[in-house]
Amino acid sequence: MRFSVYKSTLVIALLGFVSFPSHAQKHVADTASIEQRISGLLAQMTLEEKVGQLTQYTGSQLTGPASIRKTTLLNSIREGTAGSVLNVKGVKDTREVQTVAMASRLKIPLLFGLDVIHGYKTVFPIPLAEAASWDLDAIRQAAHLAAREAAASGVHWTFAPMVDVARDPRWGRVMEGAGEDPYLGSQIARARVLGFQGEKLGGTDAVLACAKHFAAYGAAIAGRDYNAVDLSPQQLWEVYLPPFKAALDAGAATFMNSFNALNGVPATGNRYLQRDILKGKWNYQGFVVSDWGSIAEQVPWGYAKDKADAAQKAITAGSDMDMESDAYHNHLGELVKAGKVDIALVDDAVRRVLRKKFELGLFDDPYKFSNEKREKQVLNDPQSRVAARQMAEKSMVLLKNEKAVLPLSRQLHSVAVIGPLVRAKRDLDGSWSVASDTTLTVSLLEGLTRKVGSKTQLRYAKGCDVTGDSRAGFAQAVETAKNAEVVVLAVGETWNMSGEAKSRSDIHLPGVQEELFQALKATGKPIVVVVLGGRPLIFNAISDQADAILYGWWPGSEGGNALANVLYGDYNPAGKLPMSFPRAVGQIPIAYNQQYNTGRPITKPGDATYKSAYIDGANTPRFAFGHGLSYTTFKYSDLKLSRSQLTAAENVQVQLRLTNTGKVAGEEVVQLYLRDMVASVVRPLQELKDFKKVHLQAGESKAVAFTIDRDKLAFYNQQLEWGAEPGEFKLMIGSASNDIRLESKFELLP
Ligand code: NOJ
Questions:
Q1: Candidate from 126, 159, 290, 434 with most ligand 1 atoms within 8 A of CB, to mutate
Q2: Same structural domain for residues 386 and 490?
Q3: Do 386 and 524 belong together in one domain?
Q4: Which range marks the domain in which residue 549 is found?
Q5: Residues 135, 164, 291, 547: which is the catalytic one?
Q6: What residues have CB less than 8 Å from 202, skipping those under 6 apart?
Q7: 709 is catalytic
Q8: How many domains are there within the chain?
Q9: Residue 454, pLDDT score
Q10: How do beta strands 157-158 and 111-114 pair?
Q11: What does the pLDDT look like over 599-612, one tens digit per residue?
């Protein structure tokens, strides 16, 4: 049997060989010729030109009025001593700057990089929101459309995806990633890289991706940005590295290192991370860019005595390109001449950078991404707006819905739309919107106005600001509520409250927004709360007393339309939380997969005496990882396992039936969790190992299947070896990590 499969594969391969050059062969030929061309170029380069390829500057002042132009930087580009620029965008500007590079001695084109994090002109929901969709195809498509717009605008390279696992909602950058789970995070990392890069590098609808921030940046102590990280090797390998490996396997062209020190060594000067793991064990062929100024930051960290020392440490550790430190530009040449840095390290780094420029096709046409007609067409393509709206709908999480107050009825005569974010546009785009036209963003009020028919009157009142303590608008808001049948209250964070350098020590809903809620609640009207923000927030009064809560995150350009569609039931919400929402700041970190049974678990509800518990609150989150409601209901039944015992070579096939027991069509994310009951390193109570998003018509029922292989049972033992240990495993399948509907167990035999 084996032989015949092998034989037929061989025949097919041979046929391919004889009849036409295969894709793989062409790739091998292209690669060989690229390597030859790089060698030819390297042989002609001076040391200064080589260092130039490893130098990146911000170029926001390279174009525009002559008076503010950075002429020294333009001169560097002309002299071939800058290889890449960030923050220059648009066909006109990128072309202008590229023309300067093309006047350099060797005519090596520049690489234009930009933070295209969630869309370009068309703003998609923030990455954490997209992660809540658990919809890998949609996430891939969102990245593709962002890349298409950016590439049409002269950009070659995005500093995305951020694949840092983020388990601390105080850290503002949770908004840029996929949340707290390494499995979901890895799937999404892969989807985003494939989306940004397209079929093959070099397409004019694709950009280079950059997996960042290598590594463990998301584990910053106390959730404070740029802080140190202290991690066990098991946590590093099991939780923080897998999404990077997934990005690499999906072909991520570049990596960015990070601002944090990991176990005492700044990531930029970290040889273990960059040389041993990334370029060694993982055999990575792309290049590593530093984070902004992170080479120089090794000095204040107390890891390098000056910038020259920092440059030496960074290049030795495997950082190929210097973003904005000026450390390579000023010191790398002299370090090589003094024999402190081997030229082979520099050559290898240059080779890696040039390889990407060749793969993009820039040596054949440096203006390949500079087509004004295409720019105009692509940036105004309505297809992107449709996709942005759909992505926003998929991202929204229905946290609560009592007495089916949602969806809203079109028969309502009056709806009060209250809150500081009702008319917001910039705040819907969120942080990291680098090329958006905010005037085109649809606010919640605009979305609702388009949605409701002539029967319904919308009455608006602001109530209060997002921050500050003024209650001056409360009275009018209460009056407005009294005159309506239902209240929709939109609260949350402004666009600049989550993101880089936006850590918060208190993640309660800011200002007096929750007080406004309570004033409105006192009217006795049903209240639907829409929360807009870049991170999990704490809002206990709302969680306890609101009739419905829709978590809309920062939903992007089409936010208002998407919110209106969900509120009125034209889209049935299916989002599930990719991060746990705490009840209190003091519970953090509260990621679901950081929970252990401990030696003192709470066994009797309410009895926490001498147990691993708080004396002033619950252990459980307010809203759990994986939680998210729908306008319909789902029944889980008929769980079947193909075997209850398996040997090392066997898999377990898992089958169940999912039925839509409600009145409308909907989607459910079926989540599969495992617990290894006894192991040589204690295991968390739950680890997500698989999921399926299933669409069902009302009353429809479908079989859902999973395969559990050895890899899903494996972990890193005390010797840091990856493997599965014999023994019992608990299987949990459900609608959320705290809403397990089916349970079973199986045993891995010795
Ligand atoms: C610093 C951020 O940490 C990084 O993610 C970003 O890509 C660079 N700045 C460039 O803007």
A1: 159
A2: yes
A3: yes
A4: 379-587
A5: 291
A6: 359, 360, 361
A7: no
A8: 3
A9: 86
A10: parallel
A11: 999 998 888 999 99
